[in-house]
């Protein structure tokens, strides 16, 4: 019923022949902790099922998930597009590290589809990376629309879906190529573990996995266990947070004091004009 925690760095082969069979693809086994772990593999399968992804790789943090994805899928000298709202450390990484590989960047406002089209028309864009909802302003991107725009120009679309969780949004089903999460937030849900993941088509995720196996931002199996345990209540926690946020937003919207309420999809919200329809649940985060 519970997934065992497999605390090992190396794996046993009972004979040289078994090792040869493993290396030549006739025997399935784990080999070394940086290349895979049964507890983490169970977590990856669960995440793939939630995101409707062919494959998922779990890593040591949400930041490392973005770094591994960008390092793998954006070639040296490439161009990326991203948005003004972005987790600050992701922005710092993009501004300080990507130029060292000759990667240039266009930054657009999340709702500015003309600016996105312009960036796609005038650069050889490898990837559009955006959060939706964004951190910290909870702006929403129309994933279906931007995925069509990107794919028409041969660019990949990666969504940081941390603020949505896979309960509120399944970006791959709307056309995104990759989804990254800081599992530290909703997915693990108990403030006791840091982790991140990248989900998508096997063809793309396996490239990230190869990079990850070399560079080594491995998630400890005990952390994998804590995230698996947290995920058992993910749907309940997110539904509860959605309905609390909605109640708060409705209360504050009617409040006589002048306050701005940002709740994606709330009828009178200033964000509504550039929100997409939700996938599964109607309401999510509220920010004052
Ligand atoms: C939207 C978003 N993406 C990525 C990260 C980075 O995740 P982690 O803290 O797990 O490295 C954060 C962290 O706050 C975040 O808010």
UniProtKB/TrEMBL annotation:
Keyword check for Chaperone: no
Family: Belongs to the trans-sulfuration enzymes family.
GO biological process: methionine biosynthetic process; transsulfuration
Cofactor: pyridoxal 5'-phosphate
Pfam families from the UniProt entry: Cys_Met_Meta_PP (PF01053)
One term of GO molecular function: cystathionine gamma-synthase activity
Source organism of this protein record: Aegilops tauschii subsp. strangulata
Cellular component aspect of the GO annotation: chloroplast
Protein name: Cystathionine gamma-synthase
Key words of the record: Pyridoxal phosphate
PANTHER family (UniProt xref): CYSTATHIONINE GAMMA-SYNTHASE, CYSTATHIONINE GAMMA-SYNTHASE 1, CHLOROPLASTIC-RELATED
Source species, domain of life: Eukaryota
